[in-house]
Amino acid sequence: MMDIQQTxxxxxxxxxxxxxxxxxxxxxxxxxxxxxxxxxxxxxFSDELRDIVNHYL
Length: 57
Prior knowledge:
With 57 residues, the protein is mostly helical. Helices cover 95% and strands 0% of the residues. Keywords: Membrane, Transmembrane, Transmembrane helix.
């Protein structure tokens, strides 16, 4: 049981694990940025659409 725990600690402390997690985190931030940007553009578009509808009604 102690060997497994030590192995887990070694994996967590290894540079490969750290770089891998930071890589995943970077992708997540990147995706979040584009997702928010997409939502913002959709929101702006719906805003314009509402203005057009109000103009013609």
